[in-house]
Specification:
Helix content: 25-40%
Keywords: DNA-binding, Repressor, Transcription, Transcription regulation
Protein name: LacI family transcriptional regulator
Low-confidence stretches: 337-352
Radius of gyration: 26 Å
Oligomer: single chain
InterPro entries: Cro/C1-type_HTH (IPR001387), HTH_CRP (IPR012318), HTH_LacI (IPR000843), LacI/GalR-like_sensor (IPR046335), Lambda_DNA-bd_dom_sf (IPR010982), Peripla_BP_I (IPR028082)
Largest sheet: 6 strands, parallel
Strand content: 15-25%
Number of domains: 3
CATH architecture of the largest domain: 3-Layer(aba) Sandwich
Length: 352
């Protein structure tokens, strides 16, 4: 038999509104009354309707997860996986569950993101930045639904964002290359429509200008943050006939692809080309030679996103943003010591 609130109220000798208050943790109910109702619920195996509870409290305890973009990255990129896992862990401690949204391109019949969030009574959203952002993200950003962007600068009154300081990502790499004596730097960037990629490119140009290193357009190639695009980009760079002293790839996966292409050409890392990636994924430690990289603190980003969204939903804060400091991790692919203790740095040096 399926019991209703009215059934429970009748069996416990109270009103349906009293049962509802007990289910929603109101504090104006006497302990004896509460105990009597809970005993009836336990005896009957009653479980409240989730949708009815959400309707009564105007709170679903569901967070929407949106990957905003049309490229094939989605959530299978190690960076996004780690960020979402950290977010899930921390937002779960606040009593929320996650609902992953289909990309708008594949769910157009269900309406845009805002209409779907309203349909599912979403309490808040985390929006992960991809390339080529859909227009409806802006509508969601400026709606009544609290949103937190990751690598996506949201600007709504109930929105915020957390991101790595992408200017510093490039600045740290260029400074390290400069100290190694590298003056010929190639760059595998992300999609030119990507906010993150453009910030890193701008940061690279500014840092190279600061150190007096020429920025050569022919040594800038775009990829999609995945390994195969890094491989193809490196093949294209090497096809010019010149070998740069150093390579910065905007993701570790692209750096791994570039390393494969460099080895196929019979070149050595880091003696012929020093290589630095970005993200510090687990595979960076396992490649030969181990990959130098700029670490994005994925655990911290996910945790901050959870706390910031909680505060926005609880109206503890207004629109907010946080930049997370990156960290350069130097391994054997660029200036770290090899297993025999000798310094492995590029031997071809030009300029001062």
């Amino acid at each position: 038999m399926k019991y209703t609130i009215k059934d429970i109220a009748k069996m416990a000798g109270v009103s349906p509104s009293t049962v509802s208050k007990i289910l929603n943790n109101y504090h104006d109910i006497g302990e004896d009354t509460k105990k009597a109702v809970l005993e009836v619920m336990e005896k009957t195996g009653y479980r409240p309707s989730y949708s009815a509870k959400a309707l009564a409290t105007k709170k679903s305890n569901i967070i929407g997860v949106i990957y905003a973009g049309k490229i094939n990255a989605d959530f299978n990129h190690p960076f996004f996986v780690d960020v979402i896992n950290a977010f899930k862990k921390n937002i779960g401690e606040f009593g929320y569950d996650l609902l992953f949204f289909s990309n708008e391109k594949f769910a157009s019949s269900k309406g845009d993101y805002l209409s779907r969030c309203r349909h599912y009574q979403i309490d808040g959203c985390i929006i992960i930045n991809g390339d080529d952002i859909e227009a409806s993200i802006d509508e969601l950003d400026h709606s009544e639904i609290p949103c937190i962007g990751v690598d996506l600068p949201l600007s709504g009154k109930t929105s915020g964002y957390v991101t790595t300081d992408n200017y510093q990502v490039s600045a740290k790499v260029v400074e390290h290359f400069y100290l190694l004596g590298c003056r010929e730097i190639a760059y595998i960037a992300g999609n030119p429509k990507s906010v993150v990629s453009n910030l890193r490119t701008e940061g690279l140009e500014r840092a190279m200008q600061k150190f007096g290193i020429p920025f050569r357009e022919e040594w800038v190639v775009h990829g999609d943050y995945f390994e195969e695009s890094g491989y193809e980009a490196m093949k294209k760079l090497l096809s010019h006939g010149e070998v740069p002293q150093a390579l910065f790839a905007a993701s570790d996966l692209m750096a791994l692809g570039a390393i494969r292409a460099i080895k196929e050409e019979g070149l050595r890392i880091p003696e012929d080309i020093a290589v630095v990636g970005c993200d510090d994924i687990d595979a960076a430690r396992l490649v030969d030679p181990p990959l130098s990289t700029v670490k994005q603190d994925k655990e911290k980003i996910g945790k901050l996103a959870a706390y910031m969204l909680r505060d926005l939903m609880d109206k503890r804060t207004d629109s907010c943003s946080i930049l997370v400091e990156p960290e350069l991790i130097v391994r054997q692919s660029c200036g770290a010591k090899s297993r025999d203790g000798s310094n492995r740095v590029p031997v071809r040096q030009t300029g001062p």
